[in-house]
Amino acid sequence: EPEVTQTPSHQVTQMGQEVILRCVPISNHLYFYWYRQILGQKVEFLVSFYNNEISEKSEIFDDQFSVERPDGSNFTLKIRSTKLEDSAMYFCASSLEHTDTQYFGPGTRLTVL
Amino acid sequence: RKEVEQDPGPFNVPEGATVAFNCTYSNSASQSFFWYRQDCRKEPKLLMSVYSSGNEDGRFTAQLNRASQYISLLIRDSKLSDSATYLCVVNGGDSSASKIIFGSGTRLSIRP
User: Fold this and answer.
1) Where does the pLDDT of residue B98 fall: very low under 50, low under 70, confident under 90, or very high at 90 and above?
2) C-alpha neighbours within 13 Å on the C-beta side of residue B9
3) A-proximal residues of B, 50-89, CB under 8 Å
């Protein structure tokens, strides 16, 4: 069964550094998403991406964040100048249509020191 | 009112029991509804989509009441492996259909 993959599984960085989280969505899916989950809290929507542009973003997704689909398979989330409060699990997801089921990757645990 | 609201639990029930979860949502324009389950420190995984006519998948039954903006999940003959957090998920409606909103989840613990 096709699945969403994410790398790395765990990223440790120093405050102020830039990180790039990588995702490979399911190959025939057209919509891509990033979510985050701070430990003990609920899953929060960050951004959705379709046709090489952002279709929606939340108030969390400020100028510190950017997304990119650099080639036909990868989907990345870049966090510039990380802050302590960026520590969380970041999940990538993909779906065939925008109202379809979203399939989640295993997540990247980001720890900012 | 929260966009998606769930009873946080925890629900602690014996194996074999029937347990029901409820969820309410605030956006009447929402079009898609799902139940996901999340195990500790793992990604959310789809349990089932929820349709207006109600749907059943083995021991699991989901219901949607659009008029009351209410979704339910019933688990019959619960197993130890059902222990998880159950997430009610709703899409954002016409103007933000690709955004899905998670409830905070209901924790379920099945005891032997």
Assistant:
1) low
2) 22
3) 87
Cβ of B44 within 8 Å of Cβ of A44? The answer is: no
Strands (E) in A1-113, as ranges, are 5-7, 10-13, 19-24, 31-37, 44-50, 53-57, 65-68, 75-79, 88-95, 103-104, 108-112
Query: Bridge-partner residues for A6, per DSSP?
Result: A23
Residue of B nearest to A95 (CA): B98
What's the mean pLDDT when you consider all of chain B? 90
Put simply, the chain B residues between 18 and 47 with a CB less than 8 A from any chain A CB are 31-32, 34, 38, 41-46
Tokens of B19: 């347990």
CA A36 vs. chain centroid, Å, equals 7
Tokens of B24: 């309410």
Average pLDDT for B23-52: 91
Cβ pairs A/B, distance under 8 A: 52
What mean pLDDT is predicted for residues A6-32?
96
